[in-house]
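Subject — a protein and its fold
Encoding — discrete vocabulary of local shapes:
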Amino acid sequence: MTTANIQLWSIDINPARHRTEELRSLLSDDELQRADNFRFDKDRDRWIAGRAMLRTILSSVIRCSPELVNFEYDEHAKPCLRHSDDEADVYFNLTHSSDLALLAVTSIGPVGIDVEQIKPLSDVDAVVERFFSTAERRTFSTLSADEERLKAFYACWTRKEAYLKALGCGISKPTNTFDVTLLENSEPEIVAIAGDKKAADDWLLFDLQVMPGYVGALAIQSKADVELVWRKLPPFNTSLCANEPGSTEKIA
């Protein structure tokens, strides 16, 4: 079986305010316009930090300066790299929650990643009823302890989001049309897609062990033997060189 890897970065997107202007210098005009549309400064600065680090990391992969990374957008506004016919495809996906962002980069194919900060939810049953599939709701109903329910909810939610982001459609596709596992002792797995278990066999789903208080998941359509490789970078290293992409740690 072919082995391929997905590179992962964990990024602190809570920059000191004096770094924001430095990070803004890496963004394009349309990105700056989007950043300035945020209502709250903290949300704007997090978005700028995430986008700047996305450019910095991708620049180390395709070997150019961060400002020269060119993006194209599909009909769902998902960014992809613009490249010439003789360049290899590079797929990526960025997600963030609160001060943490996760980035996945690979040559395998479209990848989806999601991270959520674990917070108590007063309306969890209503959310489950609306967004979970029949099979997922049935499994969730067997849980009674609050901690178990919270863990199962976030496991299910991040796995579903990762799959939808890999498709490139986000929540424009109904989240209750496919089934994922959600119990703590179950392997992350897409069980069925529109009731078709064979269709789900083409997909790989991973839980991502991130910092305490967060849950992460990654999805990709592949029959390869996929290896996840965490990459470590200094925070907001805007002068990252292409031949110094950081250290690695294989985790799967």
